[in-house]
Design brief:
7% strand
């Protein structure tokens, strides 16, 4: 039975190296013969090469350490640096893999190396890992291979990935802190209502007087949570799980959420600037790589991260395909800021569209950064106020009857 060479597998081996020392280990490859050939290149005379039972899996699905997007950006940056220094592609994979701390990422890099050694081109090898390398990434690498300037293309891809991930990190930074504090505040409030308020309720029952309306409301809420708290928790968890599942399955729901986010007071402006920056950065990178404008716009639509802008960019693509100018087509959508439209128009007239788009992307990335810093400084007093209202309100409700009884005495 012929050996399947379409799937990369792990092969265990043992043999003798150049110094006569016995060595053994595991190496990914498409066949035992290719693994033996690779070992011979390393000066190892293999006396045993056998296929292990499990194939190489994507780290996300195998329970291994997760690969962060920034690790992919670092991998591309290191690979570009190696190739610019004149190191061959296959040897660059080995050098980069040796310096990686994440074993899952190292396994992916060695898997790509095995594919390339087996005759696959770099872009084709990347397609084996779609969760790590999207269509835009693969198409840019393919463009670099076809033009013979792979190292330059990898440098551009690395810059694009680094700036894209930094932009995402800034937005997450703006939302993570208030979200975490609000969740903690809710948990603390629930604990007070379930554990502390009942103690005060027993004390108030001996007063023999009518309690203040605010205190009665808190006590009723505490009683409700004690009786039906588990049910409420299940309902809340079910609603959250349902919304997450609906977001995965319903494009209509996703479109509704994307439109809603853009209309929110502060988050909407932040999202708007981030989408414009991502659009300009992606278009600048793809267009500078020699990708035709229509294909570049299609890549931008998929990378926009917002369905409203994705549909608008696809309309722009269709208009450009009929001969309209890019700036005019973007203006018709009524979704892009005036500065971006003017810069794109200047870029088209001067023949430096990628430079102008790069400047617009840098401007809006800086705006996102400044807005995140401002939001972080503004959120701290607001969060303290929210905590004061939630926790302080419960404490006041519990001590209000005691204060009123003291004033009567």
């Amino acid at each position: 039975m012929a050996e399947d060479t379409n799937t990369i597998k792990n092969y265990s081996y043992s043999g003798i190296d150049r110094r006569g020392v016995k060595v053994s280990g595991v190496l990914p490859g498409r066949s035992a013969a290719l693994v033996k050939a690779q070992l011979r290149k390393q000066g190892i005379n293999a006396d045993r090469v056998s296929k292990k039972s499990e194939p190489i899996n994507i780290p996300f699905l195998s329970g291994k350490k997760k690969i962060a997007p920034m690790e992919v950006a670092i991998f591309v940056r290191q690979l570009a640096t190696m190739m610019k220094a004149g190191v061959p592609l296959v040897q660059s994979f080995e050098i980069v893999a040796d310096g990686l701390d994440n074993p899952s990422m190292r396994e992916v890099v060695l898997g790509i190396k095995a594919e390339v050694e087996g005759g696959e081109n770099f872009a084709g090898a990347l397609k084996k890992y779609p969760l790590l390398f999207d269509d835009l990434f693969v198409s840019l690498v393919a463009s670099g291979e076809q033009s013979g300037a792979l190292e330059t293309m990898l440098d551009r891809i690395a810059t694009y990935k680094e700036k894209s991930e930094l932009l995402k990190a800034k937005i997450k930074k703006a939302l993570r802190y208030p979200t975490a504090v609000i969740i903690v505040a809710v948990i603390v409030s629930v604990i007070l209502l379930v554990k502390v308020v009942p103690t005060f309720e027993k004390l108030f029952n001996g007063f023999g007087a009518r309690l203040p309306a605010f205190t009665e409301m808190v006590i009723h809420l505490s009683d409700y949570l004690q009786k039906d708290g588990v049910f409420v928790g299940i309902v809340v968890a079910a609603v959250i799980a349902g919304l997450i599942e609906l977001k995965k399955r319903s494009t209509t729901f996703v479109a509704l959420l994307d439109r809603l986010v853009l209309k929110l007071p502060i988050v909407g402006k932040l999202t708007f600037m981030a989408v414009v920056a991502r659009y300009c950065r992606t278009l600048a990178t793809t267009f500078a790589a020699g990708v035709p404008l229509i294909e570049a716009l299609e890549s931008c639509a998929g990378a926009s991260g917002n369905t409203l802008y994705r549909d608008a960019i696809l309309r722009v693509r269709d208009d450009v395909a009929t001969g309209q100018q890019l700036a005019f087509s973007m203006r018709l959508t009524n979704l892009f800021p005036a500065m971006a439209l003017q810069m794109v128009s200047i870029g088209e007239e001067s023949g430096k569209l990628d430079d102008m788009l790069d400047k617009v992307a840098s401007y809006y990335e800086a705006e996102v950064d400044n807005m995140v810093d401002g939001l972080t400084a503004l959120m701290e007093p607001l969060i303290m106020a929210v905590l004061g209202v939630l926790v302080g309100g419960l404490i006041i409700a519990m001590y209000l009857p005691i204060f009123q009884m003291g004033s009567v005495v």
